[in-house]
Amino acid sequence: MQDTSLPPIKAESTTQNKFGTFRGVFLPTLLTILGAVLYLRTGWIVGNAGLGGAILIILMAHTITICTGLSVASIATNIRVRAGGAFSIIAQSLGLEVSGSVSVPFYFAQSIAVAFYIFAFTEGWMRIFPDHPEILVLFVVFALIYALAYISAKLASRAQMLILVVQSIALTSVFLGAFALAQQSQSTYEPAFWGNFESGSFWLIFSVFFPGVTGILAGVNLSGNLKDPRRSIPIGMISAVLVAMTVYLLTATWFGFVASPAELVNNETVIVDKALFAPAVLAGLLAATFSAGLASLVGGPRILQALAQNNVVPNSEKIAETSSSGEPRQAMRVTAVITLSTLIFGSVTDGLNAIAPLMTMFYLITYGVLNAVVMIEQSLSLVSFRPRFRVWRGIPIIGFLSCLAAMFLINPLFSLAALIVIIGLYTYLSRLTLTNDGGDLRSGLFVSFAVWAAMRASRLPTSQERAWKPNLLVTIKSTEELLGSYRFLRALTYPHGMVYVLSMYKPGEHFKVQGSNNLVDAFTRDGIFARVAFVEEEDFAKGIRVGLDVLNGAFFHPNVWFNVIQPDTEASVVQAVLKRAEEKETGAILFAQHPESGLGREQTINVWIRDQSPDWEVGLRLSRLDLSLLLAYQIAKNWDGTINLITVIEDPAERENGHKFLNSLIDLGRMPSDTNTIVQVGDFNDFLPHAPRTDLNIFGTQKQVTLEFIRSIVQTSRASCIFVQDSGNESALA
Prior knowledge:
Blueprint: H1 21-33, H2 36-40, H3 42-76, H4 86-128, H5 134-151, H6 153-183, H7 202-209, H8 229-258, H9 261-266, H10 270-274, H11 278-309, H12 316-319, H13 329-347, H14 352-380, H15 394-410, H16 412-430, H17 442-458, E1 471-476, H18 479-484, H19 486-493, E2 498-505, H20 516-525, E3 529-536, H21 540-551, E4 560-564, H22 571-583, E5 587-592, E6 604-609, H23 626-639, E7 642-649, H24 655-668, E8 676-681, H25 684-687, E9 696-700, H26 707-717, E10 720-725
Parallel strand pairs: 1-2, 1-4, 2-3, 4-5, 6-7, 6-9, 7-8, 9-10
Antiparallel strand pairs: 5-10
């Protein structure tokens, strides 16, 4: 099988090439958040929603991102966050299939975000140079961002330091503008607490704003380029989010006092007009949007590269390639194509406002799953979950529910479509047999649920008639024995039964059962729960009895012993095990396969029912018939076959009663409608060779097992046979 583990990127091999907390997490996170929406849409939001509504939107959006940030910070201090950021976190908890199905849309959101920020940059540029062709500006800016990101993430990081300085000057000029207006006796405004929402509903306004706070994973996406992700991610991300939220709240308040609602809605660059020094704000706007686009174009390809390194996307081997300096050049080219397509789409629609809701939905899904990861980790209380940075249990719950609610409040149909896409991706990825060398939580999750369910079930009445399903204990002496009965065992147990294989071998003969585990794996792939245990024991009967005793104490214990009658099978061994099975209230199946016809066409089953004369009454408990009927139904369903219920009676006067009894079994036992009934008068041994040709006969066991009798029945009937002993816990009529 191809190795799908994450190989190290060449540039990450030495700590000299990696980033610290400030440069690697805080700076890209802060600059991505303080981008297009801060300068171009915060005023628009205040104009539509009023100052109170805008503050509510800002706090709601930051509730989601702060909860998600705290959740990511917690999980990042518990695991080794590898390349791919959010993809790595989800993969190590919920597996590659879940992580891939969520991270593919998230990667597209990152790629779309590049176009979003380029549109924002262009709006600012057109304010300075209104005569420049807008389409030309879009693609020139894209070319510059792509060139910087393509050359090196380190170069992009150096550019961000300059951008931080420009941003600081711009924001200082913005806030000083309020004082300048007051000193010049210019008009100030009493902000409306709640707006008229001219441009759309509350949730539409929210969806336009939300991309402005989605930069929290900008640093996490560079996890493969961090010196110490466990330390840098929590400190850098949380501090950046808190600083950004403070700036947004102050800016929204500033907008409320310096301009009227109409001006805020209609003039998207009102922040430039009201600032103390307009050129500084324009420079800040251009720097902010440029840096946010650059950060997205640096982080997005690294998500795609991580997906490719795990064979999640098509053409993974090519996309996972890196340059000599460790840059994901192939992934960057793919991202460029997506970004260009988005630019073309946005240029013929409403630009920022058309792209923002689409991005919002993908971000909300990713953030919701990240919160769910921590919620699950906390709920399982596994020893492996011991993060250095602990959060209150309500944090991921609030984050998860907030994401889910926001999605469906913004656009229910699109949310449903997005979830269907993710489920479709998960279904596709589940078929690829992806392997994660670091493991994940899924087994622990289901085991914990199984333990909880077992504890609940243990408090309920022990009667299992309505919940009966075949859980077979299969005893073998060789792998070939299991292989020979594989198809029949599948017919007996699929889809909800279980197979416990007890591979018995004498000292020094382990090689005879060595391949059993491979066949057990095959059962699992066929959708049947299967386990194998190897037991070294000279005495075969003793080994089986001990196995029955031990497994009988398990919660999910076998309820039927299955044994193949071989030429060397000893009657005393079979008799001893049947006795122990009866004591342990375990059913039994002795399988005697016809040496030539095997299971034939796997279509017809004859169930032989002893003469019930003179009492033909059908009660809740059938005399040694329940397991036979249940097995016949189970096999017929998997074979798509036909059942014949056959009884041989001595008294011709009982023929009518015999037919009524068999028809009652069909009716009360809900047997298939095409089940046939045959009542034969005469001697069983005389009729057996002339009975309807079948692929399998089902008989009850003898009080005293005679192997010669079993073999003679197989030869006389010219078909394979099973001999069944009820446990007393089955009911074909329940």
